[in-house]
Design brief:
- The protein has 162 residues and is mainly beta.
- The protein folds into 2 domains: 1-70, no CATH class; 74-151, Immunoglobulin-like (Sandwich), CATH 2.60.40.790.
- 10% of the residues lie in helices and 45% in strands.
- It contains 1 helix and 10 strands, in the order H-E-E-E-E-E-E-E-E-E-E.
- The chain has a 4-stranded antiparallel beta sheet, with no helix packed on it.
- A hairpin with a 2-residue loop joins strand 6 (99-104) and strand 7.
- It is flat, with a radius of gyration of 21 Å.
- The termini are far apart.
- It holds the Pfam family HSP20.
């Protein structure tokens, strides 16, 4: 008989995904999972008046039904202020020399590789930014990037009606 799901159980799907991941680990042969660590997570961010944003991070891709180890997706937070856009990415286990950043339009690409540890993520920026203003620092596993917004002067113009 099928189990009835409690409509108030918002984590039911996550429980099922976690159980599937554990089964995959149990079915692996010796030595197949010694290249860890394995991690998967998500962050939920909700701004007032907007729908919640759910972002995944980690080096396991459970959506395929199998455990696929690859590049890690760092946990990334984007802060939109009046004059700047700040991006904070958690990428432990690398050196600042390992980080590559590039930006085009409203997209920032973060790449880093140190030994077997690899990170890669595309970040959608919430505003147009001045790429030449970019400042980045990496300390204690945290990458901090600040970009100035492009300030477009607003001007008033009279429009003739024909």
């Amino acid at each position: 008989m099928a189990r009835r799901r409690n409509p108030f159980d918002i984590f039911g799907d996550f429980d099922e995904m976690f159980e599937e991941m554990l089964k995959e680990f149990e079915n692996m042969g010796p030595g197949e999972h010694e290249s860890g660590p394995f991690f998967y997570g998500f962050s939920i961010n909700q701004r007032p008046g907007e729908e919640p944003e759910i972002r995944e991070f980690g080096n396991i891709r459970p959506e395929s039904g199998k455990i696929e180890i690859g590049e890690r997706k760092p946990l990334v937070d984007v802060f939109d202020t009046d004059k700047t856009v700040q991006i904070v990415a958690e990428m432990p286990g690398i050196e600042k020399e390992d980080v590559e950043l590039s930006a085009e339009g409203r997209e920032l690409e973060i790449k880093a590789s140190h030994g077997e540890r690899k990170y890669h993520e595309f970040v959608d920026l919430p505003a147009d930014v001045d790429i030449d203003s970019a400042k980045a620092s990496y300390k204690n596993g945290v990458l901090d990037i600040t970009l100035n917004k492009i300030q477009r002067p607003s001007r008033k113009k009279r429009i003739n009606v024909e």
